[in-house]
Write a structure and sequence with these properties.
single chain; 0% strand
């Protein structure tokens, strides 16, 4: 695991360097976030996200695991498919509070990274950045390509990973990182968001995958390089489209290779 993590870090660094020059050539347009009070908005976003990932999401997982699954007779349902559905439900519920608060505070959806601005360039960057990362991982023999003959790709799984990725990117990059970077500065805002994102998976690892606390912590630490790269990618595009595409492909192919 630690060796794979080192290869991932190296691949992310190389990808970020190449991405820097590509984004510079594409000339992404800036737009007004329409956030009146940066500090207040950032603090509110921190409270909303922490309450969501520490209290709301674990409670929903516990309810679904110990009540809904038993009622549906879990033994008759594919384990993987069930948790894919549950993860989508939890992810979509996570963005509900922030959307309500954004509307109540009369902040633009631009401030969530949901915008038509730079959308086509963001789609392009999303795919290009993953191809670059994937290529480095193949070169370093961490990914197998062509794919193993026993790999079974599921459209349902792809849709599942897309919905989860979109919800997480809106919550962490679009909502939280945007406000923290406006308040704390680009570097500190990006790093703090990456740490919160990584350790937000702690309860999910324990409840969904039945990991021990120590294994779950190690797993969360392993997410940090990915989280930093997602933060960097979003900071360049200012659009969740790019990070959602990369995030989707990263999770989808990562589960088959």
């Amino acid at each position: 695991m630690y060796i794979n993590m080192m290869y991932q870090i190296f691949s992310f660094i190389l990808s970020a360097l190449i991405l820097y020059f590509i984004v510079k050539k594409l000339n992404f347009k800036a737009y007004d976030l329409k956030i009146a009070n940066h500090k207040r908005s950032a603090i509110i976003s921190l409270i909303v996200v922490l309450v969501t990932v520490i209290i709301m999401a674990p409670l929903v997982l516990i309810f679904l695991k110990f009540f809904v699954i038993d009622w549906l007779d879990f033994n008759k349902i594919n384990n993987s498919s069930m948790w894919e559905i549950i993860n989508v439900i939890v992810a979509l519920l996570q963005i509900t509070p922030l959307i309500i608060i954004t509307l109540l505070r009369k902040e633009s959806f631009y401030s969530l990274g949901i915008t038509k601005s730079n959308v086509f360039k963001s789609v392009l960057i999303g795919f290009i950045s993953y191809i670059i990362y994937f290529s480095f991982m193949v070169i370093m023999k961490q990914y197998r390509f062509p794919f193993p003959s026993n790999s079974v790709f599921s459209l349902l799984a792809l849709v599942n990973w897309f919905l989860v990725a979109f919800a997480e990117e809106v919550l962490f990059r679009g909502y939280l990182q945007t406000r923290l970077m406006e308040w704390l500065g680009n570097q500190r805002g990006l790093i703090l968001t990456a740490l919160i994102f990584s350790f937000s998976h702690l309860f999910q690892r324990i409840l969904s995958v039945d990991m021990s606390l120590s294994r779950a912590l190690v797993s969360c630490i392993a997410i940090i390089p990915f989280a930093l790269f997602m933060g960097y990618l979003f900071s360049k595009c200012k659009n969740v489209v790019a990070t959602t595409i990369f995030h989707t492909l990263y999770n989808f192919f990562g589960n088959y290779i």
